[in-house]
């Protein structure tokens, strides 16, 4: 069986973690997968806070409806979506494109100006919702990467976003928390889901071939 499929069969949303620290190499690979993930227009309109500090995670614990993985895990990733896409941010992205691909500066001005015009017409809510979708792509990539590293992960939507934003000072940075991801190692003695069979719709129910 494909190793990725094996890893996805192994993973589940761990409900309890044992406090063991994720080795730096494994964490780096998970973070690199986030950096390399696909995003619309390549803009990567989010910031990922990598929180190891136990005191900060304890502050977030109540805001995350007391999900124990927040404090029992090794790290908590906070996917914070941008609330605005500025012309300067777009220029910064295209400058990277020109440098990395050896292109003449300004070669993609038509494309860049289209994006500037598009986002200038969007509200903060519209931009945040779009950016959150991009962050979710990164979240999915991180789940797969963690599974391949045999690191347990628990994605979370159940949290008070306003409180998380306040604790981490996100609003003043033009960011808003869209999802959380706890990383660590499962506590088999405390997690009632550790041996639960994975339940998914069958291929013939999920996929429609046309």
Automatic annotation (TrEMBL):
Its cofactor is FMN. Belongs to the nitroreductase family. PANTHER family: NAD(P)H NITROREDUCTASE YDGI-RELATED, NITROREDUCTASE. It comes from Fontibacter flavus. SUPFAM superfamilies: FMN-dependent nitroreductase-like. It holds the Pfam family Nitroreductase. Residues 10-173 form the Nitroreductase domain. The keyword Oxidoreductase applies. InterPro entries: Nitroreductase, Nitroreductase-like. This is Nitroreductase family protein. Keywords: Flavoprotein, FMN, Oxidoreductase. It comes from the Bacteria.
